[in-house]
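Our example pasted here:


***
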Amino acid sequence: MGETLQLYSWQRQDSIWLGQRNRLLASDCGTGKTLIAVETAKEYAQGPVLVICPRLTKEWWAQTVQDQGAGFVGICQESGRGIPWRRVSSWGNRRPLAWVIVHPTAVRLAYRKMLSVRWDTIIVDEAHRFKNRKAKQTRALWKLKARHKMLLTATPYGKSPADMWALLHYLDPKRFSSYWRFFNLFVQTTEDYSSRRTVIGPRNLKGLARVVSPYYRRRDSSVLNLPELVYADVPVRLNPKQEALYRQLSRDAYAQLHGQEVILKNALVKFLRLQQCALDPGILSQDFPLYTLDETPAKVEWITEWLEDHPGEPVIITSRFRRFVDKWLRDLAPKATIVGGMKGSDVQRALKTFEKTGMLVGTLDAIKEGLNLQKANVLIVTDGTYSSVAEYQLSKRIHRVGQTKPCQVIHLVGKLRHRGRWTVDKLVRRSQHRKVTEAELVDSFIKMLQEEEEEDE
């Protein structure tokens, strides 16, 4: 990149706001939170800076720091290797700044080494990963002290505002000392016959805004004047053998594949297996390279035809299941594949290949956070997850600052020929719109199966 990126006026305002005290910046994905945080630390930090970010984005953070001329960078390995911790504090007020970049697992495993450093600024990217107040990595984060703290996340909480408490406690442990006080004030619940509480949503929104507003800022992506983002649910009819197996699993909860038994013990397992069957029955078997129904899965056929009809179109294709990526998608872009467990350097190589070729494939969890993929304006999701948060994060990989073309997110939704019924893919899409919990999704699934059984009778 080589030259300093120019901040929009509102980004400059956010940089000044972040530099004044401990803050939570919750602006939409793709609105430049990384750049704002780097510029803020560059201007206000007086000593070493610690960046905590997802494993796959460590190289991106390092590149941004270097491009902005903000200092020199050290990237920490999982167990704390790679950083001369005793020397970091001695860098003190030296310019350029010393930046250390770690990922959440390293915080849990090596926080004692980090405690030896007098951090001036701590930046936590994708801070929602620390919302569980009981998790070891969250408690390790709480122990890390700094003059200035910045938390960055586009999804600070889901259904319950209480998800924010662990983050607010880190920013101001005195004011946010009691989780249950915060919960009772701002979370609406209902009780069942056994007195078990279920979260319905937020309550006392004015009071919540008054308490949180000094620490919290959010800007939506409308400030960027981005091009249009369109979602399309494309029905894909399963092939005959694929549909026959799907209906067998739906009806009997049992099948035998390549000498292996597939037994669906409960509704949650049944939902998962039916989702896999609608994608590719071969991934139901442990010996999936050997197992086949002697026909290409319907969604693979659809992807193949789409690529033939759109030659050269920059596109990202993703799946929830690693085995499907390895079996079908990796061949489409072998040098531009991103899956879980990859080294940051390998991810950066894949991204560079993607910039040249315009095609990237990978697993949903590996792609949904922290990556800048606006090279493509089409995203094809072969299955998806019930989480509306994950859906939002995924779409923002392409619909973000720097995008100039209208964007389209295509969801492939399996459909049966038998009475025009939908597969469980339809429930996944509905759950994303309704923002339901996993338990509610399973309840809907059970109800759907019961209705189908009544129709067949």
Observations:
- The first helix runs from residue 9 to 18.
